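Researcher: Quick test of sequence recovery. Tokens follow.
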């Protein structure tokens, strides 16, 4: 199996040939696009997701090695998934869910606790579970974001989580070495999740970004997937946070 280089002339060996990639949250959006690109680069993929029907379709489309429908924030279900995982894996991506925004005066602290669990504790649980399951030099890729770097009403919780994530991954990179750990922090990405969050404001947001971003277009899930697969393949990269926002922070 070979993949053409950018000039279309010289074949190269696929970057993930013979490796196994697990994508938690792999039935749509960034997770699905990463799994699709990993397959193109020669990997076997294992997909998980909460929606059984959508997951079944994604697994069939990609020819996934296996799939498992469960809620990764459920500790027992997550532990069961790793207990049942057969054979060593090489990489795991934990695709992020949408953040919880609320002014302090209106904050539902139960939802806040759940958000901390999804974005801080869940990556730690995953990192502990992969120990002994992942080959040396393999990698964890977590999805964060850049929105929480701004300051304002409603951003207290996401700001705290966004600030914590780089420290979390830097320490994991030391503690679970030689397994590597990195974070991707996208800006706005045009995914079904973004569509559900913005509703009727989606087209307006797309047009705003097209006219203001230095790259002149909206970031898509394939842009994030390209970086995710590079982080898996490049064994020199660990403990860092990488932005994919098309220059959004420069013009915000």
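Model:
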């Amino acid at each position: 199996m070979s993949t053409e280089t950018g000039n279309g002339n010289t074949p190269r060996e696929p970057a993930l040939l013979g490796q196994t990639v697990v994508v938690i949250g792999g039935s749509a959006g960034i997770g699905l696009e990463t799994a699709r690109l990993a397959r193109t680069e020669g990997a076997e993929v294992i997909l998980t997701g909460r929606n059984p029907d959508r997951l079944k379709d994604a697994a069939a489309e990609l020819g996934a090695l296996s799939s498992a429908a469960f809620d990764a924030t459920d500790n027992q279900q997550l532990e069961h998934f790793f207990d049942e995982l057969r054979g060593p894996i090489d990489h795991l991506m934990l695709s992020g869910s949408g953040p919880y925004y609320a002014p302090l005066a209106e904050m539902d602290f139960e939802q806040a606790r759940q958000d901390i669990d999804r974005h801080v504790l869940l990556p730690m649980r995953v990192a502990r579970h992969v120990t002994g399951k992942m080959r040396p030099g393999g990698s964890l890729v977590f999805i964060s974001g850049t929105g929480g770097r701004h300051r304002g009403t409603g951003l207290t919780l996401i700001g705290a989580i966004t600030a914590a994530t780089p420290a979390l991954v830097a320490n994991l990179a030391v503690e679970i070495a030689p397994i590597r750990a990195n974070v991707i922090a996208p800006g706005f990405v045009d995914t079904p999740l973004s569509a559900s969050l913005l509703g009727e404001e989606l087209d307006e947001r797309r047009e705003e970004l097209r006219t203001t971003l230095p790259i002149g277009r909206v970031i898509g899930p394939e842009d994030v997937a390209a970086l995710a697969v590079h982080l898996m393949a490049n064994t020199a990269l660990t403990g860092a946070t990488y932005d994919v926002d098309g220059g959004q922070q420069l013009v915000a």
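The chain has one domain: 13-251.
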